[in-house]
Specification:
It is built from one helix and 32 strands. By secondary structure, it is mainly beta.
Length: 390
Amino acid sequence: MIEKNQERSRQKTEVRSQKKGRILSSVFSLLTSFFLIFCSANSQSPDSWPQFRGSYNLTGIAQSQPPNDLKQLWTYDAGDIIESSAAIVDGTVYVGTGKSQLLALDLASGKLKWAYPTTDAVGESSPAVSGGIVFIGDLGGVFHAVNAADGKGIWTYKTGAEIKSSPVIVGDRVLIGSYDGSLYCFNTRDGKTLWSFKTDNYVHGTPAIVDGVAYIAGCDEIFRGIRISDGKEVVKMPAGGYTGASPAIIGQAAYFGNFNNEVVKLNLRTRRQAWRYSHPKRQFPFYSSPAVVDGKVVLGGRDKMVHCLNATTGKAIWTFTTRARVESSPAVAGGRVYIGSNDGRFYVLDLAKGTKLWEFTAGLGISASPAIANGKIVIGAQDGKLYCFG
């Protein structure tokens, strides 16, 4: 009898211990989620443009307004094509180049501070900067973490294929997509792999972060939401087509273009498509990622046009025609749209009307996207030059 009572007592203790463990695990998971949500708040200031599209939700809105009468302040010759979009933090410009380098330059003068050698050329992957570390991927599939102060390497990780996605930093975690089909999450300090999520095709676009969830519009034609705390898929919806662009998210709405020649709005609450837009005459893919501001969605198309749509209805407000495909993603500041074109020109357009206010002619096409901080605009071109205007 005593032995049976002892056994029952032991079993009760084990059950209580297991319940306590589950409760503590749930609490920890909840606290982690709250921490990541807190850290994913838009921390952009007028003095910085810390990542591709300026902020975690990828809306392309600048907090700093450049002067109306722009002047070319400096040019830096990187020696090879620049498709990477710049980041600007603490008066320093960071950008990747086709010469297999990550560069750091002084924003005021354009003088080189340091050059870090990447394993392979840097394509469209754009640097993200936080906590004194710069992150970028290269076409050899290597993801790099570099000391922002001196350009010394901290850690690297070799993915299974080229990287064209740009990194996003959330608290002590950094996310990057690879052409091996995976979205990765690493610890920023030591590069430890916290999780990876496998999709059904390339992960080309950059994740947009909202409320602790990373959203990607994929080359597998699926729009996914991956929880940052544990890498679990929490949203899965049809993207409407093969998608190379990155989504911009405002509230419960995601906006992006696809290779089905459409711009799509998804309602994240109802998990349904809200609208889709295609030009009535010119059917070409959308590779540019949208800027979303003041009820407008602005993006470039391979139809050589910049499109401005009503964010609520998806109806066209205006279009502006360039001389070549527009793969650059626009930035918006002070009622003006800043965007490059493969015709070799950098355009400033009126957000309300779509009229051209200013243009600059570079040597070759501009597929990189503008970075705006401290009243200055920095953008690279396929002629290997990095331009600064202000």
